[in-house]
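worker-03 picked up job from queue 'complexes'. Input manifest follows; two sequence lines, order preserved.
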Amino acid sequence: MKLLNTDTLEEVREKLRTETEEMKFRTCVMDMEESCGFICAEDVFSPEDMPPFDRSTVDGYALAAQESYGAGESSPVFLHVCGQIGIEEAAEISPGEGEAVRVQTGSMIPEGADAAVMAEYTEEYAPGQIICCRPVSSGENVMRRGEDIRAGECIIRRGQKIGTAETGMMAGLGIRKIRVYERPSVTVISTGDELAGEGEPLTAGKIRDINTYTLSAAAEESGMTVLNKIRTADDEAEIRRAVQTASEKSDIVLISGGSSKGNRDYTKEVLEDVTGNVFTHGIALKPGKPTILAYDRARRTVIAGLPGHPMAALLVFRLVIAHWYRMKTGAKEPFLIPAVMGSNVSSNQGRETCLPVRLIRTADGYEAAPVYAKSGSISALSEADAFVMIPRDREGIRKGERIWAELL
Amino acid sequence: MKLLNTDTLEEVREKLRTETEEMKFRTCVMDMEESCGFICAEDVFSPEDMPPFDRSTVDGYALAAQESYGAGESSPVFLHVCGQIGIEEAAEISPGEGEAVRVQTGSMIPEGADAAVMAEYTEEYAPGQIICCRPVSSGENVMRRGEDIRAGECIIRRGQKIGTAETGMMAGLGIRKIRVYERPSVTVISTGDELAGEGEPLTAGKIRDINTYTLSAAAEESGMTVLNKIRTADDEAEIRRAVQTASEKSDIVLISGGSSKGNRDYTKEVLEDVTGNVFTHGIALKPGKPTILAYDRARRTVIAGLPGHPMAALLVFRLVIAHWYRMKTGAKEPFLIPAVMGSNVSSNQGRETCLPVRLIRTADGYEAAPVYAKSGSISALSEADAFVMIPRDREGIRKGERIWAELL
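worker-03 finished. Artifact:
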């Protein structure tokens, strides 16, 4: 059964992708030290070999491996120490036959040597003379030039989030600048006569605005910047002014209506007026059906009318807007957690279900316990650890079935 | 076998806990809107009931449930609509016998009503007159006052990280301020003659400083603020000055030596001089053995001398310093991922092993593939997704064994 006038989640994602094809997120060149947490905007290639020279990975003696052949506890090889190379020094010495050079972990391996023997397997029996009681093979205890990273190798891909590892590679390779995606700007608009203002005491029938704050927090967690938070009454003219201004100033506008019907109608009309391009009028998704999506071609702004219930608004934001942002920047999808469903769960066929769950640790994995919340519950928000998607063509998930959960 | 002069990871954690018992991290009261990402510093209790009044969870009619008893498709109940309550209105009407009040999702349930029937199961057959063809039980489609959250209930615990859900609960309950832990301040000191300066070309034997950047990024990711980054030569006086200044100005000082032996000796001597309280001289951990820990009682600063290799320094930072910070603030331990080991892995008995792994998705879970990296490799940093701890009393992990991995 396909619900009238609604798109599947997959269709919504595809429409949003197509509509915004020519929209590109702004990038900028950033100091490597400031880039942690940003998304890399172009492939980064190594400018040099790492290590830049053959390097000893042990404290000991560099030598031609063949000099050590046959060495053993009872048949040590005698070697003359012809010099030493500190870790900060260029190797200006070259061991010949019967010779070795003292090196530290990180020291350059000199010409003429191709291996290093660990100090533990040697003994200095006279000044400048050692015995070696273990053979090494060519390349042993040596990291070859370029063995870790070769010049020209792609070390950070477009879409990769800059974290500790990426920072470490840039530092090690002397890369001081990187092109990243600027954080897209978001305006959050909450509409509804029943919303009490900040710090206003709750009078009868009023409820407090939750969506402004949860959507702002979710946008920030997704790597966006919240430019502005606007609250309007259920008044078409007021909503129109707010949406127009927001569309001019931001890349993404999130409108969350109260739960009243009239309100939703205003939003739809306003989005049609402002953009002339509302392309989704509902998603076959539970929760999340009353979602409207528009793309303002002139101002290159995506505008989403999200459901009024906090949990539904958050899930649609994650499944549609955050997903789209990752797709546009090439960023990785979130890491999913494997779990076993802890009880039978039914779902509406024909409508994909997004089920909040708690993840309970068992001996060797997680059990997912559904969080059932009455419509509008806010404690459910903090009770759930993750959510599980139940496909449209399923009637539910059986107890004991293996599922993948996405952390909230 | 216990390695001479080293502590187990567990011993190190316990020593650090005991040494810093009287050290408290600073807290501050913060605007709720700014608090996302911070750690809550005291239990937060709900100041009010949520919802603040009995609320309809549907669009329809509020009534005394008994008025609907016996209603069915073929035997509808006739009701008089005695008024309506918008979602922003106080309920000033009270339905009597044979009466119902029109309500919206979120509307207050009036006196005399204890349930709501969905509009779908009613029909207006004349102005102000409806038929109802489905019975409701007491409480049906109503969220009772305090059902979601009761006044006085603890909604955010000390140690909880403020995220989307916590933000939503504070917003819903009108909590505008929250006491959080200030980010502790960190100074990162890198020592070593072999380190090339920023932007300096690599001359023979020099390598670039990686630890300053990876440790700074890891500290920021752990919720700390990096005050200062200092680079010193292998010079005892220079290191001493840097440590003294850093200890005065920050809560945590991270020193990462180059891999030379002399360097490590300087660090130990300097920490003894400055703090008189070096309590760990090595950890029975692979990698991570050359770790020195000190607590500067006078200045209340934890000083860690970390290994020179980037991967080892990062792992010790996570396993010791970040773990200690979570313990001090009551923050949750990281979410672990269940996986199956993809190959046999051996480890040194008597020394705990921290094994970097890649997590490869299989049909119903993850397979952990060990990342073997030569000492000092930086590409290994980005190759690994997570790490697995192999206990001291094990000789390794067998292929197919179930393990828990912590995401890097």
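worker-03 released lock.
Chain A has a mean pLDDT of 92.
Chain A is about 20% helix and 30% strand.
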